[in-house]
Amino acid sequence: MSKVVILGSGAAPGVPALANGFGDCDSHNPKNVRLRSGTYYEISGVKFLMDTSPDLRMQLLNNNIRCLDAVFYTHVHADHLHGIDDLREINRICAKPIDVFASPFNMGVIHQRFGYLLTDEQQVINPKYIAALSPHVFEYEKPFEFKGLKVTPTLLEGHNVEVSGYIFNDGEVVHIADFHHISDRSLSLIKKRPELLVMPLTTPKGSKFHAGLDDLIYYAKEMKAKRVIITHMAVECDYEKIKNSSPDNMEPAYDGMSLEW
Ligand SMILES: [Zn+2]
Ligand SMILES: [Zn+2]
Questions:
Q1: Ligand closest to the CA atom of residue 38
Q2: What is the pLDDT of residues 89-114, one digit of tens each?
């Protein structure tokens, strides 16, 4: 059995946002209340996070997540990274290091900003508290195995910083983070019909650095994804409106949304 939980379905400002409140979202629909971007997966028995948003503490509390094997990073924008310090509480609970994966560029930035967390040496603070995130860098398009999970990282295009997408088990799950377009090369790495495709929207029309809903529909068709979850939505994305504008196999995420297959 595999599982996904959407921990946070919002874009960088969250919803409501400090500047724009609920914007175009219906404030009476609880599905429009969104923490910043984060996803939890269990695939091939491996429990992992995709990114650590600044809301990570609340996300882990809300969804009763206490143990993790790994974290995969998509990019170093604050809404995807800056909750990394909360992982030390997971270290404390599980008394073991957490394996952290990123591209060489992204790991370099993580090291600059949060070097005190990254170590190959386990810091035994007391026998029950081993504080350590063990860093691993990968090469794009070079599949690797982690505890029986096959991971193929791929470079996404057109965002304003480098972004890594992830293909798990040859395409069983495809996780796309902030992007403007996806290369044919990336698409060719998906070897089977995805059971699940997770994609970020931000705003329905898209912008210079973000794809819009039409682009998401296009790529979901290209990948022949069975089921698609749209996440990373800003105040312009009302839950019901996005749902009504999406094909049957696509649906907007909400915080705490969970699927098993
Ligand atoms: Zn983002
Ligand atoms: Zn971003």
A1: 1
A2: 998 888 888 999 999 999 999 999 99
Domain range list for the chain? 3-260
Whether the pLDDT of residue 123 is over 80: the answer is: no
CATH of domain 3-260: 3.60.15.10
Structure tokens that stand for 5 in this block? 């939980």
DSSP state at residue 86: G
The number of the ligand nearest the C-alpha atom of 77 reads 2
Among the bound ligands, the one closest to the CA of 54: 1
Say how many Å lie between the CA of residue 156 and the centre of ligand 1.
13
Ligand 1: centre distance to CA 199 (Å) = 11
Evaluate if pTM is beyond 0.90.
Answer: yes
Number of H helices, E strands in the chain: 7, 16
End-to-end CA gap in the chain: 6
Instruction: Write the pLDDT tens digit of every residue in 32-46.
Output: 999 999 999 999 999
Q: Residue-wise over 66-99: b if at least 16 C-beta within 10 A, else e? A: eebbbbbbbbbbebbbbbbebbbbbbeeeeebbb
Alpha-carbon gap, residue 99 to 132, rounded angstroms: 9
